[in-house]
Design a protein that fits this description.
Length: about 700
């Protein structure tokens, strides 16, 4: 089957060439031993007419194409296509699409359209425009334009321009951009600008343009305003022009006024200079300075190190110490992959911190080649970031094949501080191979903090595949705080997999464990099943009515509102205002107000204004004032006048006036005079304005 498909692919790829070269005739269908060949017998005019009109003809052709998966029969089916006129091809094209969606028939269909395009692409394109079958229309127009682009690019562009559907027109242009740009980059550029094709098409057009007329391309580059379009166009110019005429391209690049574009162009040019000596001469001729020079050097170094590391290293001796260090730093990853020992020598000989970012990769490459050598090297590094990165690289390489050995290595270097992060990855990898051994290692740690972190990492990983098992394990942890934290990790993943199961398990927990786990439970369930999340919170609040002002209830309500507000803030706000307990309600309303103000401050302020008087409204108004006082102190002051709590009203007046006096002290004083305040409050605030 694989041989057959490969042969078919090869046949289709050479299909167009086959029609032009006119290969020796294959046996006609009439000569085939196929039982359907009589239907397709084309030896006389009557049978030809029968073939053209028979509803069985297409089925027969497909049967012949598919029969016994025979390459001979399939080639005969293709040969049959070469005997047909455009009208007959149209009849087949319309019928073939109705037989089956089988990919094998799709190949035959494509071959049919290709044959039609070779015979008369104008006729095929016209058919594509008028047929009611959208899929057939799309394929027909694409095939016609593809052939037209190779024969007459002007005509291809004209045909594309007649497609009324914007999506199909842009799609058609995108499929032949590369072909068209090689013949007429200016016309192609005009077309892709007109149709606003994606920025990466500019790369192909300007590559071709730089090959034909780079100066003309530069002239039209100035008409591009989009940053991404310019970036791709500059890359295309630099790559092709730089390989053909690096000096001319470099003269253009250094004249670019935009610093980032200049460096981008220099980078593209120098990357395409394959001769290190010529590149060095060009570098000196350009007399670049600062980051422009370093950008060009790094780009030139890329080819040099790919070709010959030792020759490239010798070349770096001609650079300044800083330039050499930066080049080696940029190429250390490549050197590490090719020759880890040489990379280690360069790393150990460093005189600054330029190479530190390559420590991890170097250690990993050394470990892959010689684990003991890598570990000895890591041990030789002084304590600090570089040593930790080396340890991380060794651990990452080890845990792929032997997580137990990775764990033993971490035990030797010491499980503490940041090293524990690496152990969390190891215990997860080990659990996949040997769950029992991983559990033993995590729970046997004598350091309580390390034991907690490894356990949390393990159960979090475990619960992604088996939340019930991870939950059962977590529930057996004796330390209450440790147990609840582990359960939080499990519940979060379980709720994402199956919220009903997660809720049922939560309800089965001991009452003392529920409050800690509840907040995680709510935020996880809310995104997949908001009704269940609301029911969960309301059920919890009703059961804990004797502790309605407790932190757990407040946290539960706020968690629900915060998660809910991400996709329906108005519903979350309305729910928050229905809560009975004053403290829980005020905190939930605050959460809703903050979220809504970030999304739509006008709608949020309208909702706050409709809240009934009370502590919850006053608290929400305070949040609103804080949000708008900088941009609109007058409105903020007006909101402060609506506060019911006198002490809070005084504080908010003070807060707004403090901001307002810096922008318009006269307006601030006018607002203060019109406010309904006691003499004492007025004089206190007036004094504040005068300071």
């Amino acid at each position: 089957m694989k041989i057959l498909l490969a042969a078919l692919a090869l046949l289709l790829a050479g299909f167009a060439l086959g029609w032009v070269l006119k290969p020796p005739p294959l046996p006609t269908l009439a000569e085939s031993s196929s039982p359907v060949s009589s239907i397709l017998d084309t030896t006389d005019s009557k049978s030809i007419e029968s073939f053209r009109s028979s509803s069985k003809a297409v089925t027969a052709l497909v049967d012949l194409y598919d029969e016994h998966r025979s390459m001979e029969n399939q080639m005969q089916a293709y040969r049959q296509l070469s005997l047909l006129s455009p009208m007959e091809l149209q009849t087949l094209a319309e019928s073939l699409g109705t037989i089956s969606d089988d990919p094998r028939y799709h190949q035959l269909h494509q071959a049919l359209l290709n044959r039609w395009a070779e015979v008369d692409f104008e006729d095929l394109f016209a058919f594509g425009l008028q047929t009611k079958d959208s899929k057939l229309s799309r394929h027909a127009m694409h095939q016609a334009i593809n052939v037209a682009a190779k024969r007459d690019h002007h005509r291809a562009l004209a045909l594309i321009d007649t497609i009324e559907n914007e999506h199909l027109r842009r799609e058609a242009l995108s499929t032949v951009t590369l072909i068209l740009s090689k013949n007429d980059p200016l016309a192609t550029f005009t077309a892709i600008k007109k149709e606003s094709l994606e920025d990466y098409y500019y790369l192909e057009v300007f590559r071709s343009w730089a090959n034909k007329a780079p100066l003309e391309a530069v002239e039209h580059l100035a008409t591009i305003t989009s940053r991404e379009d310019r970036r791709n166009a500059i890359n295309g110019l630099a790559q092709t022009w730089g390989s053909k005429d690096p000096e001319g391209a470099a003269d253009w690049a250094i004249a670019l006024s935009n610093r980032n574009e200049r460096r981008q162009a220099l980078q593209g040019i120098m990357r395409n200079v394959s001769d290190l000596d010529k590149g060095t001469q060009l570098l000196e001729k350009l007399a670049l300075k600062g980051k422009d020079r370093q950008t060009a050097i790094n780009a030139l170094a890329g080819n040099a190190f790919q070709a010959d590391i030792e020759s490239a290293l010798a070349w770096t001796q001609t650079l300044s110490p800083t330039e050499r260090s930066q080049v080696i730093a940029s190429q250390l990853y490549h050197i590490t992959q090719v020759d880890p020992e040489r990379a280690r020598q360069l790393y150990d000989a460093r005189t600054d911190s330029q190479l530190r970012h390559g420590t991890n990769q170097l250690a990993r490459a050394l470990a892959k080649k010689d684990l003991t050598n890598a570990q000895d090297w890591a041990d030789s590094l002084p304590p600090g970031n570089a040593r930790r990165e080396a340890i991380q690289g060794i651990v990452a390489e080890l845990q792929r094949t032997d997580p137990q050995a990775s764990a033993e290595y971490l035990e030797r270097v010491g499980l503490s501080g940041r090293i524990t992060y690496f152990a969390e990855e190891v215990v997860s990898a080990w659990f996949d191979r040997d769950p029992s051994a991983a559990k033993t290692w995590a729970t046997s740690q004598t350091d309580l903090e390390v034991r907690k972190r490894l356990t949390y990492a393990m159960v979090s990983h475990w619960s992604r595949e088996d939340p019930a098992g991870a939950a059962a394990f977590s529930a057996e942890i004796e330390d209450p705080a440790h147990r609840r934290s582990a359960l939080q990790n499990v519940i979060s993943n379980w709720a994402n997999l199956n919220s009903d199961e997660a809720i049922a398990y939560f309800n089965s927990l001991e009452a003392e464990d529920q409050p800690t786990v509840l907040q995680t439970m709510i935020s996880s369930v809310a995104h997949s099943d908001i009704d269940s999340a609301v029911e969960l919170v309301e059920s919890h609040l009703s059961r804990a009515s004797d502790e309605a002002s407790g932190n757990g209830n407040v946290a539960a309500a706020r968690s629900l509102v915060d998660s809910w507000a991400e996709f329906d803030v108005s519903a979350a706000a309305i729910w928050s205002a229905t809560l009975e307990d004053p403290t829980v309600k005020m905190n939930a309303v605050n959460e809703a107000t903050q979220n809504w103000l970030r999304q739509d401050s006008i709608a949020a302020s309208e909702w706050v204004g409709e809240l009934p008087s009370g502590a919850a409204r006053d608290s929400a108004v305070g949040i609103l004032i804080g949000h708008i006082k900088q941009d609109d102190p007058s409105a903020a002051f007006a909101w402060a006048t609506t506060l019911e709590n006198e002490d809070q009203r005084q504080r908010e007046f003070s807060r707004v006036l403090k901001t307002w006096k810096t922008s318009d002290p006269n307006a601030a004083m006018g607002a203060l005079r019109s406010a309904d305040l006691s003499d004492e409050a007025y004089h206190s605030l007036a004094k504040q304005l005068e300071q």
